[in-house]
Structure formats: structure tokens, C-alpha cells
Amino acid sequence: MPWNPNIVDSQILAIHAALVPSGENGEVVLFGGDEHWKDQQEPNGDFRKTRVYDVQTHQLVSSSIPSPDSDVFCCGHAFTGDGRLLIIGGTSVWEPDHPGPGHPHELAFGGHRRCWLYNAHERKWVETAQLLPENPHGGGTSGGGRWYPGAVTLANGDVLSLFGHARREDTRHRNANPERFDVNTNKWSQMPLLANDGNNYLPNQGEPKVRPLFFARTFQLPDGQLFFATAMPVDWASHTTGNLPATDGPHFSSFFDLASGAYIGTPIPEAAGYDGWSFPCVLLPLLPEENYSPRVMHCGRASAMRIDLNATGPVWQPVETAQKVDRVNSCAALLPTGQVCLVGGVMDEEHDGGQRMPAELYDPNIDWAAGRYRPGLGTWTVDTGLPVHSRNYHSAALLLPTGTVLTCGGNINRQMGDPNLHGVKRIELFEPNYAVGTRPIISSAPKSTAYGQSFEVTVSNPASITRVALIRNGSCTHAYDFDQRYVGLKFDYHSGDSHVRATAPPNGNVLLEKGAEIDLKDNYGWTSLLWAAENGHKAIVKLLLEKGAEIDPKSAENGNEVIVKLLLKKGADWESKGKDRRTPLFVINGHTQMIELVLVTDAYQRQL
Question: Can you tell which superkingdom this protein's organism belongs to (predicted)?
């Protein structure tokens, strides 16, 4: 049965969900802030709503998980390069007396500047630096903040936050001042303003005029650029007076240069029908044989829209779905097979009638033997089973390390208010057909590696392995997963071996950096610096020292001249001695990327 009948009470309206590295098979942190209910809004409401779901046991771990003491309802989030979940902004106030059309703050929701980091190992939230208050167009230092912000992890592990509704004190409708969270200093800095942004607000003249730049679908590309899949206005300056034409447009998709804050190349006509936040958007699998050429797909409407970003003159192309109906507020998860799994959604979000939608599976048309995409745009199929619960506005979905897809949350008829009356507080699992197959068992694998380096994975029946991939942990809200990413790896197997040997991607543009707690020690007191020095990995030693690793003189014991010079340059104290004279091979519990190693056997492919 594709849908697991064992349904779990989530206890809260899980508007936000993220897979975090804790427990035997990972945990999912669920949070909802005020749960779309004004009575629970801060400062006096019951908006502290966090729960943790254990993947291994399929149960909540506790009902007493601490929560942020700011309202994180409708915040943005993304994993930093060192694997922490960063929460950006949220709801500062529900404003019943908000201004009407023609004023930048016609929305009832104001954003705030407070941000949090989730410590998965201790199951607690830690407040970090606030977003910056400066309004580049005047207004002093009381502005800023974000509600419905976009977020994207950059190649070096920093997080970029884009757009979102600003605080009431800010004179702009949307915060168009990009801000970058430094993973090393835990501080925000302002980036160059988006080109020609003017005052950068857009008065609402009917749906979906203010929608395009909330939860902007933005992707870090393998060539270092960003891609705005969400449509951008052609001329920001024309949106500063409030005297807009009948239609808010034209719009375009664009490549974006982070350093200059400028759009790059010829604007790409927008993907028709995908100008808001109600439908998913995914970066399709990146394959090494194609030098990780990027393709992006919007989905959820009767026709999906796909684009090949390396094509000459890239354009969005329609891909007809199997059901040929809109699935508003659906969510999409990348599967280990390279397919896209579309779950949830309804045809009419304000009158959903408890409508339950089957999962749809998209095959992107990859020749896995050659490691390349075939000509053609792929095909959709419909699963035969139905979930028990409808998933409308404020639902989420995530791929789990077990290969199943978790679904949670949702407001019935998109209605705000008491979530016990208007929400779905249940967790369901979709189990793709491959779940009944024989899963490969990994008996040993390195806990970290370096870009471009090969590594071995000891696995049951290695001769049957047909693909090796790295899949990034997801974090999802409002029909969008900010973090999921499928990176295929080159690998080989020699007859008689008990392992496969894979090669890591060449850089952080492809994988997105995931650093370790670089001075973390194992039970024997060994750090990553000791391991790298003992084994002569000069590049790793250099990187660790640049990242501020604590110097230990034992790191020079193997006598490598280059490593000794690196340590001397960083001021190693050669008089200190350690208790243990050995520096054995050991890799600490960290990764270059927050990933799940997925090995796909022939048994996994029966659904293809």
C-alpha cells in the first residue's frame, strides 16, 4: 500500500518542516508559530509551537520541545553550510487596521527581524543575529524584517535572504535589500540592491499582484550564479508610484549575479501560471556526466513547466501532467530514483471539501546507464492510492532517509483560526513502490570527504548498485522546499570488491558546502585536523586552518613538510604535547554537505 496506514498525531499545525541530522535515521523538526490563528500571535498568544518527529520510530519524541519566543509563522528557512537550520523572520503583528490599496502596507501581516538556529543534537533553538534594520530608501533604522522571505544556501555555506514583507515601520511593501548570513560569524550583511529596484513596493490591485516575490524560488547553480525561477518585474522603477497598469507585468525569469546585484543575460519569459507561492519548484537531478547541467521545473498546475538552463536561449516548456488538473498548495519531493513525487494540494483552496489527491510521479527522462538526460521532457504517472487527509494551504512534505515521503499540516479551506477546527494535525507517509524492495545495507562509509576526492562505501551486494547520489536534507513550507538537492556521483565497482568507490562533486556550487564542527573530538580526542595531517591531505589541512581549526602539534607527526609549514604559519605551539602520540585515521561526525547517501539498486527501480 503506497500510503502507510499508521498515522501520527503531530499535536501542532506543522506549517514548517525540516529534516535534521539527529537520531538513528534523522529527525524532523516541525513548527508553526501562531498556527495561522490571530489569537495565538505574539506577544501574549500561545505561539511557541515546536515538535520533533523521529524517523526511526515514526513517533514524536516529546511534547515539551522548547520553541523560539518570537512568532516564526511564515518565516523563511534554509540550512547553513555547517548543517544548522536557520530561521529567518516571521510574523511581527496581525494588523486589523492595515492601510488599503495604494499604500505599501496593505497586507495585514508585518515581518520581523529576529532569527534562530536550531541545534538538532540538543533539540533546542538558539537566537542569532537579527536581520538588519537599515532601509536603503530612507526611514532610519526602524525598518527591515521579513515575512514570507525567500532563502537560498550559497556555495560557501552562507545563506542569502530575499524579499518578504517588511515591518510596519518600513516604508516599502517588500524588503528588496538582499541580506547574507555568514556561516562563520553568525552575522548578517547587506548585499548589493537588486538592479533598478526603485522604492520596490507593489500596491495590491487584485490577486496575484503582490505574490510573485514572496518565498521566491531561487537556486544556486553549478556555475556560481543564482537563478530566479519566480518571475521578476521587468521595470522596478515603474512600481514606485502606485499608478500601475491593469496587469502587473511583464515578468521574467533570470540569472542573477550575487556580487553586483544585477540580472544576467537576456530575460527569459516567465513560466505561465507560476507567478506565486502556491506551487512547488524543483532543481532536477544534477549529473556528473553532463557536468551538472541544471534543469528546473515548476509543477502543480495541469501542465508543469520545465527549463534547461544550459540550452541556447533557454525557455520554459510545458509538460502535461497525468491528472491534468491544478493542485494548489501541493508539495514536491525529489526521490532517490531521481523522480519527483508530487503530493497534496487541492483544486479549489477556499472550498477544498476535504479533497484528497493521489501522489503523482514525474520521470525526468534520464538514461541512467549513460548518466544523461534523453531528449524529451519526461512523463507523469498517477499512483493508485489515496491519503487519509487533505493537504491544502500551510502543508509541507519531505523526503526521509528511509526513502518515504512525509506529509503534514494544512488549513482546511485555507481558513485561518483555531487549528483544532481548521487544521490538519496528522503526519502521513507516502511509500513509493521501491519501498518493498531490498534496501542496500551500508556497513561503512566515511563521515566526510573533500571536493573532487574519491571515497569508498562498503555495502551489501555492491555489484547490484546502479546509482550513487547525494541528497540534501529538505526544509519545506508553503509548497516549496528551500533545501532539497539531488547530486549524482560517478562511481565504479570491481568484481569481488565489497565496496563501491564514488567521487565527490568538484566544488560547493554543485553540492553546497556542509562544514563540520571542525574542532569536535571523538571519544579518543581526535579531531579532523589530526586525521587530515596524519594522512597527508594538504588541501584539507589548509581548509581547516582557514576555517579556524584549533592547532594541535600532533598534526605534524607524520613529517609532511607542507603541513608543517601550514601549521607554523598559523602559529602552532611546538612545546605542547598530547597524551596520545598516535594520529590514527578518523573522520569526525560532519559532512561537506548535509546529505543522505543513497545507493539505488536494481530492486529500487521496479517503479521506473
Answer: Eukaryota
- Torsion region of 12: left, alpha or beta (phi above 0 gives left; psi -120 to 50 gives alpha): beta
Mean pLDDT: which of 14-23, 171-180, 207-216 is highest?
14-23
DSSP 116-146: EEEETTTTEEEEEPPPP---TTSSTTS---B
> Does residue 382 fall inside a structural domain?
no
From its phi and psi, is residue 352 left (phi > 0), alpha (psi between -120 and 50) or beta? alpha
Whether residues 136 and 159 fall in one domain:
yes
pLDDT band at residue 497 under the 50/70/90 scheme? confident
Identify which of 472, 302, 468 has the alpha carbon closest to the alpha carbon of residue 398. Answer: 472
State the Cα–Cα distance between residues 225 and 265, nearest whole angstrom.
12
Q: Are residues 487 and 574 in the same domain?
A: no
The conformation of residue 440, written as its DSSP 8-state character, comes to P
What residues make up the domain containing 574? Answer: 524-589
Omega into 66 within 30° of 0, i.e. cis? no
- The DSSP annotation for 524-572 comes to T---HHHHHHHTT-HHHHHHHHHTTPPP-GGGGTT--HHHHHHHHHTT-
pLDDT 10s digits, 301-337: 999 999 999 999 999 999 999 889 999 999 999 999 9
Does residue 221 fall inside a structural domain?
no
In a domain, 170, yes or no: yes
Q: Residue 459 maps to which CATH number?
A: 2.60.40.10
Higher-pLDDT residue of 117 and 266 is 117
C-alpha cell at 580: 596520545
Same domain, yes or no, for 495 and 576?
no
CB 572, CB 553: distance < 8 Å: yes
Tally of structural domains, the chain: 3
Phi, psi of 436 (to 5 degrees): -90, -5
Q: Cell 498568544: give the residue.
A: 45
Alpha helices in 267-397 (DSSP H): none
Q: Are 115 and 127 in contact (CB under 8 A)?
A: yes
The half-sphere exposure of 311 on its side-chain side, counting CA atoms within 13 A, is 14
What is the model's pLDDT at position 24? 75
Same domain, residue pair 580 and 453:
no
For residue 576, give the C-alpha cell.
Answer: 605542547
Strand-by-strand arrangement of the 179-182 sheet: 150-153, 159-162, 179-182, 187-190
Q: Are 529 and 549 in contact (CB under 8 A)?
A: yes
Cell representation of residue 313: 536561449
- Say if 477 falls within a structural domain: yes
What is the distance between the alpha carbons of residues 229 and 221, in angstroms, rounded to a whole number?
Answer: 12
- How far apart (Å, rounded) are the C-alpha atoms in residues 485 and 294? 11
434 residue type, one letter:
Y
